[in-house]
Specification:
The complex is a heterodimer of chains A (120) and B (107). In chain A, 0% of the residues lie in helices and 49% in strands. Chain A has strands at residues 3-7, 11-12, 18-25, 35-41, 48-54, 59-61, 69-74, 79-84, 93-100, 109-110, 114-118. In chain A, strands 2, 4, 5, 6, 9, 10 and 11 form a 7-stranded mixed beta sheet that branches. Chain A is globular. Chain A starts with a strand and ends with a strand. Chain B has 107 residues and is mainly β. The radius of gyration of chain B is 13 Å and the shape is globular. Chain B starts with a strand and ends with a strand. The model of chain B has no long low-confidence stretch (mean pLDDT 97). The chains are: A mainly beta (120), B mainly beta (107). Chain A binds chain B through residues 37, 39, 46-49, 52, 60-64, 96, 103-113, and chain B through 1, 32, 34, 36, 38, 43-46, 49-50, 55, 87, 89, 91, 94-101.
């Protein structure tokens, strides 16, 4: 059974850096075709894809946020880390990590999400 | 970027109705389309991939169709647990964009 869980701060100040960790189980991120992505959702708004890391270390980022995002993986710890610099109140959202199966870049298993509020 | 536009933004239905949600891509995406269901305060639930393939465990009253730029999600015989927000997502190319969502409400 695949499970994912996000962890990190619930409150960050403007201009600070956000670091979120996705800890997963039930699959290996070193297995061919696997990936883990990050998606966020501002309160009352739609889903927005942020970043994806593949089993082979390849990475993809949302072009609108690429300059602020870094995604990394630690296969031995079953963790994926997303870093977002220069946080702003508009970045207030629930942040989800999700599993990408070998069959395509959709997300078949999701974490519960973590609400991050950006406020001074 | 490929833009995904869903219609309608919201719709009302009664239990037992058949409803259809449309998703349009700004350029052709073949059948690289997924659908999700989201209930308030919950993570999205994956329903369909490759435009029409149901994820294991998803009730057969859900169906998807389409290819190219135009796609539909149909729920036949709507059940009380189906009242949610539905999102489409293209995975033809990065960035992997979502539609703005369609809220299915009880009439």
């Amino acid at each position: 059974q695949i499970t994912l869980k996000e962890s990190g701060p619930t409150l960050v100040k403007p201009t600070q850096t956000l670091t979120l960790t996705c800890t997963f189980s039930g699959f290996s991120l070193s297995a061919n075709g696997m990936g883990v992505g990050w998606i966020r959702q501002p309160p009352g708004k739609a889903l927005e894809w942020l970043a994806l890391i593949f089993w082979d270390g390849d990475k993809r980022y949302s072009p609108s946020l690429q300059s602020r995002l870094t995604i990394t993986k630690d296969t031995s710890k079953n963790q994926v880390v997303l870093t977002m610099i220069n946080m702003d109140p508009v970045d207030t959202a629930t942040y989800y990590c999700a599993h990408r199966p070998p069959t395509g870049t959709f997300f078949d298993f999701w974490g519960q999400g973590t609400l991050v509020t950006v406020s001074s | 970027d490929i833009q995904m536009t869903q219609s309608p933004s919201s719709l009302s239905a009664s239990v037992g109705d058949r409803v259809t949600i449309t998703c349009r891509a700004s350029q052709g995406i073949s059948n690289y389309l997924a659908w999700y269901q989201q209930k308030p305060g919950r993570a999205p639930k994956f329903l369909i991939y490759a435009a029409s393939t149901l994820q294991s465990g998803v009730p057969s009253r859900f169906s998807g169709s389409g290819s190219g730029t135009d796609f539909t999600l149909t729920i036949s015989n709507v059940q009380p647990e189906d009242f949610s927000v539905y999102y489409c997502q293209q995975y033809y190319s990065a960035p992997y964009t979502f539609g703005q969502g369609t809220k299915l409400e009880i009439k």
